[in-house]
Amino acid sequence: MTNPHPDPPSPDAIPEATVSQRSGVSIVWLIPVIAALIGGWLAWKALSEQGPTITISFKSAEGLEAGKTKIKYKDVEIGQVENVELSEDLTHILVTAKLVKGADEYLTEKTRFWVVRASVRAGQVTGLGTLLSGAYIGIDPVTGGKHVRHFEGLETPPVVTTGQPGRHFVLKADRRGSLDVGAPVYYRQIQVGEVVAYDIGKDADSIDFKVFVHAPYDQKVRENTRFWDASGVDVSLTAQGVNVETQSLTSILIGGIAFGTPDNESAGAVAKEDQQFHLYKNREDAEKRRFLLYFDGSVRGLSAGAPVEFRGIQIGEVADVKLQLNMNTKEFQIPVLIDIEPERIEPAGTFPADWEHLSKLERQNRFFDQLVAQGMRAQLSTGNLLTGKLFVDLGIHDKVKTAAIDYSGEYPVLPTIPTPLEEMTSRVSSILDKLEKFPIDRIGTNMDKTLEGLQLTVSQTQKTLAALEKTVSTDSPLQLELQQTLDEMGGAARSLRLLADYLERHPEAILRGKQEQ
Amino acid sequence: MSGALQGAAGAGLIGCHSCNLVSRASANHEPHAAAVCPRCRAPLHARKPDSLARTWALVIAAGICYLPANLLPIMKVTSLGNAQADTILSGVIYLVVHGMWPLALVVFIASVFVPLAKLVILVFLLVSVQRRSPWRPVDRTRLYRLTEAVGRWSMVDIYVVTILVALVRLGNLASIEAQPGAIFFGAVVVITMFAAMTFDPRLIWDNLESTHDKPAS
Question: I need a labelling partner for B15 at 20 to 30 A (CA). Which of A251, A388, B55, B79 fits?
Fold first, then answer.
């Protein structure tokens, strides 16, 4: 009987294992070494990429979430909000955020932070992406300056960030109108900038708009550039029809500012950053020329808005009337500012050849110089006899002293002559003086005497007429004699007719005499 | 030592792992010198070779990997342009905050507690074996078996991440990406499994057996 499983062999029968020597450190230790290396590298990387931690204060934490909200610059994530908490006095919130390494350089006191949310304003919709992804914090990094770690967040995103090339300008206006932050700035109907901010001016009697004009269009803003409010639609009705002027649909809705610059170098140097300009109410205003008039007499009845006419055609209006006491001469003078629209005077014929190279402004100056040389003077005239309203009349006058426009002051000064009313008053008074001297009494006595003489004459005439009447009455001898005479004459006439008849029938009777039939 | 309780090693016998041939340990009584099976020429060893050293190495490696596994995000969820990276613990906290306690518990146990427990148990076993502690060998063996059995379940996390990454690819609407944390977490799970495998539970008993048989070191 064979047993397939043999009995365990005796220990002696079991073959002995061969022995080979092995030594050294086990290779398995490589695993923890590699793990340690990788872990160490990760730790080093994490530590070396540790960026600065900053705090930003905002009024509201709307849309901000700790651990989720990102800080982005040009849509690149450069940090993350780690904590959002209320300030101790509960007036604002404090956002703690960790930025990436290398951000230190940009964390200066001029750096601005704001929350980017979806917003519809200034005719554009921004931040639509944040509707889905949630708000994020935007940053406008500025290098240079004191490094800080705490920032005051802006409540609204800045219209222009620091990195953008261009220039800021300040526009002074009387009123805000419909202009808002973000309103476009147009140059030849192309949007070249935005309104960045507006504020009440330092002296609180004007509104200061801060506008930003992007490069390269900022070069178009010269010292003589004029800005005007291009909001809404400018409709003017003229003999040529209806003229509608607007910059764009956007400017109708949200307002806008446009500017114009004379074409050539006479526009002046390129305007400097933050240079101040006046913001005109509209384009027409912007193109008006402002002149200063000095009147000595009363300007009662003259008010701002009164027309300035040239031979009965309105070419401008009075902008302002003031009263000045000249401290040098101790005399009162009344400066009147007028706005003239030179466009109202259409040039006909050709300009002198040497005017060709001149700018529009210089041409206008020459034009006015010439007019003044010809005798153009400003004068106050009565527009309405009932109300006594005055207007400024520009007219060419003969026999005036030569004068010229004085360009030395802020505004050119046009020469003036006294009002016609003043002239008239003086003439009338002189006439009255003469009237007073007239000898009315003596004339009266003389007149009396004359009248007495006249009466005598009349009675004598009456007598004469009565005598005449007697002479020619029906029973007067004159009448009878006259009757007889007439009868005689009648008889004479009859015999003459008979003679004439006979002669007609017998013409030979003249020669032969009457012949018996 | 009581002669009644003697293992194969104590009897100077070694079983071949490859062909199961039982051979006598070499005469020089060095069971850890590389013996070769006389039949199939496979290496012979009475205990897993370098068991303690290898287990130590793997346990330390797993311990090192455990830190980034928990500190780094394992998964980044991008939905509607809003990206959010989550670590294991932040995921657990998210679940707790949203009231999903059972799920949070499952994730916490499978992904945080179990790997850590495995590491602690292995360290405990290694230390106790090295110190030749005679303390509760049966319980320690049970702990070892438990460690070996439960190890693979930690991979659930990795599977979830893998499946989500593959499934949620909706472009900008939503997408999920695996993050470095997942790699380290996977490494922790795999390395601890290997560590459990390299540990030889017989060493627990060797300490009880004899003083003339040196435990593996």
Answer: B55
The ipTM (two decimal places) reads 0.71
User: Is the CB of A17 less than 8 angstroms away from the CB of B12?
Assistant: no
Q: How many CB atoms lie within 10 A of CB B89?
A: 14
Q: What is the pLDDT of residue B27?
A: 57
Give B216's pLDDT tier (boundaries 50, 70, 90). Answer: very low
Residues with Cβ within 8 Å of residue B137, at least 6 apart in sequence: B204, B205, B207, B208
Cβ–Cβ contact B22 with A under 8 A = yes
**pLDDT surpassing 60 at residue A166:** yes
Interface touch A68/B84, C-beta < 8 Å? yes
| pLDDT at A226 > cutoff 70 | yes
d(CA B31, CA B44): 9
Best B13, B22, B64 member to test A by mutation, with max A CBs in 10 Å, is: B64
Write out the two tokens for B22: 């039982």
Rounded percentage of chain A residues whose pLDDT exceeds 90: 7
To the nearest whole Å, the CA of A63 is away from the closest chain B CA by 13
**Closest partner CB to A15 (pick from B28, B38, B54):** B38
Mean pLDDT across chain A: 81
With contact defined as beta carbons under 8 Å apart, do B81 and B110 qualify? no
Q: Is B60 exposed, middle or buried (0-12, 13-18, 19+ CB in 10 A)?
A: buried
- Which residue in A20, A28, A129 is closest to B81 by CB distance? A129
Quote the longest CA-to-CA distance of chain A. 237
Of residues A460 and A317, which shows the higher confidence score? A460
Q: How far is A134 from chain B (nearest CA, A)?
A: 7
Nearest to B61 among A17, A26, A35 (CB): A35
- The pLDDT assigned to A121 comes to 63
Q: Is A71:A53 a contact under the CB 8 Å cutoff? A: no
Q: Do A19 and B65 touch (CB under 8 A)?
A: no
- The answer to whether residue A51 scores a pLDDT higher than 70 is yes
Considering only alpha carbons, which residue of chain A is nearest residue B38? A17
Distance CA A361, CA A372 (A): 17
Contacts of B179 in chain A (CB under 8 A): none
CA distances from A415 to A73, A291, A299, A363 (A): 61, 10, 16, 19
Angle at the Cα of A365 (from A362 to A368), degrees rounded to 5? Answer: 150
Amino acid identity at A275: Q
- Which residue out of B51, B60, B200 would a mutagenesis test of the A interface target, given it has the greatest number of A Cβ atoms within 10 Å? B60
Is the model's pLDDT at A489 over the cut of 90?
yes
Using CB atoms, which residue from A14, A28, A39 is nearest to B57?
A28
DSSP for A331-378?
Answer: EEEEEEEEEE-GGGS---S---GGGTTS-HHHHHHHHHHHHHHTTEEE
Across the strands, what pairs with A168? A212
Model pLDDT, residue B2: 42
CB contact under 8 Å between B14 and A17, yes or no, is yes
Distance from B136 to chain A by nearest Cα, in Å? Answer: 29
Q: Which two tokens stand for residue A11?
A: 């220990």
Burial category of A47 from C-beta neighbours within 10 Å (exposed 0-12, middle 13-18, buried 19 and up): exposed
pLDDT digits (tens, 9 = 90+) for A170-210: 888 887 777 878 788 888 888 888 888 888 877 777 888 88
* Nearest chain A residue (CA) to B27: A16
